[in-house]
Every structure is written in C-alpha cells, then in structure tokens.
Protein: Vicilin-like seed storage protein
Amino acid sequence: MLAPHVNPRATEYGVVLGGEGTVQVVFPNGSLAMSEVVRPGDVFWIPRYFPFCQVAARAGPFEFFGFTTSARRNRPQFLVGASSVLRTMLGPEIAAAFGAREKEFSKLVRAQREALIMPSSPGKEEEEHGKKGREKEESLPMVVEQAAAE
Structure:
C-alpha cells in the first residue's frame, strides 16, 4: 500500500499499467468518497485536498504511473508513516486536538516505521496464528478507542 496522502497543490492522475489494486479516496472531512478496484488500462484522478491511497491486491504487484497538474514544487503530504505530516507537527496541541494524551498520541504516531510503502495486512490465517501466540493485549491510546467506537 502506498501510504495515505493528500496533495495540497494539484489534482493527481493515475494510469494502471499492471496488476490489480484498490484506490481509496476520502472527502476532506474524512468520510469515504470512493473505494474502487482498478485494473490495467484504468485511469483515475484525485482532486486536490482529497486524501487517498493505492492498495495492491494480494494476487500480485500493482503498477501504476502517476502525475499531477502542477509544474511547481509539488510533494504529497503523507498522513501516516515515518515521513507523515503528523510527525512533523507532533506536540501537545495536536494530541489535544485528537482528544488524546500526548505520550500515547506520540507513541501511536511513531508506531509506523515505514515511510511510503506499507506492508500488506496479514491474511485471515496469519491473523489467527498471531492471536494464538499473543500473551497480552496492549492498551490502545484514547484516539484509537474512540475511532473504533465510531
């Protein structure tokens, strides 16, 4: 998966060259705008300010070519991962905005070590195996508990 990101300067376009995957887009308010499976030959576009990610199918790699509508210095703002905008802004104010304690929020934001390409989530069989070997559950930060409740 390419880490969720937003482009504050331009519309982004993508052309699927090979494989299969899913493009997920959310509105700037966080609600789901689109989640579609794409295949070779498909073209997709993402409006400026709309967070999105591309997720490869489990069957194999997902290859696409992407470009933007701006010739200016144009870098996507990643929302999670080692190079995320949240890590850049980390502090008590951001934790308070999410209704979390600073220490727990910092731990949550720093938990993702990968910067841009995220590993796939475990399959159902792998997940079951992992649950059997786990000895204790860690307590989740308040923000995760709240998100799960919604």
Remarks:
- Strands lie at 2-6, 12-19, 21-26, 32-38, 43-46, 52-56, 62-68, 77-78.
